[in-house]
Structures are given as structure tokens and as C-alpha cells.
Amino acid sequence: MSAISRELHDDLDGDLDAIVGRLTTVESWRRLTQGQRDTILEARDRAEIALERLDKSSILAEPTKPPPGPSGEPAPRGDLPGWRQVFLDDFVDGNVPSFGTCDRNSRICSGLPEPYRSRWYAYPDYYPDTRQQHGGDGGYYNPAQMEISGSCLVLKLSRKDGRTSGAAPIPKLPGGAATYGRWAIRYRAEASSVFKIAWLHWRTSSSWGEIDFPEGDLDGNISAFNHHSSGQYAKSTSVPVAGAWHTCVTEWKPGSVAFFLDGNKIGEDTGSGVPSTPMNWIIQSETVLGGAIPANEPVRRIEIDWVAYWVPA
Asked: Where residue 56 falls among pLDDT bands split at 50, 70, 90?
């Protein structure tokens, strides 16, 4: 029985017992005819049957909780104190074998049907990753290697003949680039010494600004950064990037950027370097930046159970 129906049941049952109790005291009962007594007892029987049916009714059942996703944690739905939710994707609208090719101008990926087409874009396959830009031995992003399956967005990272195929999906958030907000993502990655994640908020203007969380090599630990023109804020953890499911939340407000890992605040920057200009959210996964790396590395998977975004209320 639901809590609501239990409360109603108890109220009705208590009232019924009280009424019948008063009428069936010796003096009251004696003043009634036999027909009146029978009518009271029949009414009580009918009320008890109605209460039993109420117990079984789905109308007053507890609200259905959202089912847990592949990670065992349901996607967060709804507003929070100080935040209004405007985006959520838990990838339950069917499987997609590939993002296909992504066009920079239209911001459309050929392999994505609706509703995913309206929710997602990705770096095209001619975009070099960070190591490729600076050292020439990294690789490029490859949206064709991204898929949606098992209620997850799956990023497949690989390296062949000295060239990495990375992944950088971009959610199409309402309003586009944002100044301030709350971003949450739940993921699990396979370990690798060749690849890293730098899931970042990247500036859209010449004003310096870059917020990275989570960031780290797939064989390293999770860190958070706020890079700005005069330096950076950095917070390291002892939590491995790969292996377990993790929930990472970034809360960016005027004058502060806070980072939460699996429900715990790991750091907050309140210095003068907190940005105040619009940024895009890019789930950038690529070649590690330092050290020698092999020419070949088999596919390593990153599974994303859900992605959510709130704006200030």
C-alpha cells in the first residue's frame, strides 16, 4: 500500500470504527430497530470492501521512480535549489551505430537521427587533437567511432599507425554558449596510457577562460582546472579516471567555480581568474599530451550514462 492510500485508509477506517462504536454502545444499540442495526452493519461491510479496493488501486500508488541507468544511478530530473534544468539526455531513445560525419557549418552529424540530431554535435574528423596541434604525433577526432548503445553514449578511442582517433561530442545546450550554469555527467572509462580526457568549457571570445573537469590520463587520476590569463587553479584527487562509474559536476557562478566528484566537493576557485564570458561545453577525449606513446593502441571505450545541464534559476 502506498503512503497516501495508507493514510487515507487509516483515516476512513478510524472514522468508521468510531461511528459504529458510538452506535453500538448498549444504550444506543437498544434504541435501534433490528432493520436499522442490519443497515449499519451492512454499511460497515461495504465500506471495508471499498477500503480494500482502495489499497489495491494504482491511482494512489507511490510515484514511479525513474529506473536506474546502466551505471545504477538514475539520471537527475528536474530543478534544484538555485538551478533550473534545461537539458538532459540519458540515451534511451534508441541505438545509433555511428555519429557519421559532422559538418561544422550546419552543426549536424549525418548518422544521428532525431531526437539525438537536435541534441548533439561533434568535432569533425579533420580537427586535430591537442597533441597533434603542438607535437604533430597525436591524431584527429573521429565522430564515426562514436555510437549510442545500451542507453549510453559510447566514445571509442583508438590509435593505428601513429595516428589517434579521438572523440569530442558537444551537447547542443539551449541558448548555446553559456555564462554560468551547472553541468553534470556520469561516465566510466577503460584504462589506457595513450589517451586522456579533458572535458572542458572553452571560451567563445578573446577573453581568456577554460574550465576543465574531469581531466586526466586514462591511467591517471581525476583533476579539475580553471585556466586563466594569469595562471590557473588546479585540484588533484587520488580517484582514478578509469575503472569505476563517476559523476562529475561543475557549478559556475559569478565569482566562483566549484567541482564535485561523486557527490563530494573537491575544490572551488573564488579568485580573480573566474571567467565571466560565454563558454561551450566540449567532451574532449584525445591523445595524452606528454611522453612517448606506441604507434598502435586497441580501442578503449568511454561510456556516458547521462548528461545534464541547469541554468541559474
From this structure: low
In terms of Cα–Cα distance, which of 182, 173, 207 is closest to 282? 173
pTM of the full structure: 0.80
Instruction: Judge contact between 302 and 157, C-beta under 8 A.
Output: yes
Distance, CA of 216 to CA of 221 (rounded, Å): 6
> Which secondary-structure segment (H or E) carries 53?
helix 34-56
Q: What backbone torsions phi and psi does residue 21 show, to the nearest 5 degrees?
A: -60, -40
Q: Nine-digit cell at 80?
A: 534544484
Cβ contact 93:115 at 8 Å:
yes
Could you give the CA distance from residue 270 to residue 126 in angstroms, rounded to a whole number?
37
Beta bridge partners of 293: none
- Cα gap 63→80, rounded to integer Å: 19
Segment 194-236, tens digit of pLDDT:
999 999 999 988 778 899 999 999 999 999 999 998 899 999 9
Here the cell at position 140 is: 584527429
**Residue pLDDT, tens place only, 69-97:** 899 999 999 999 999 999 999 999 999 99
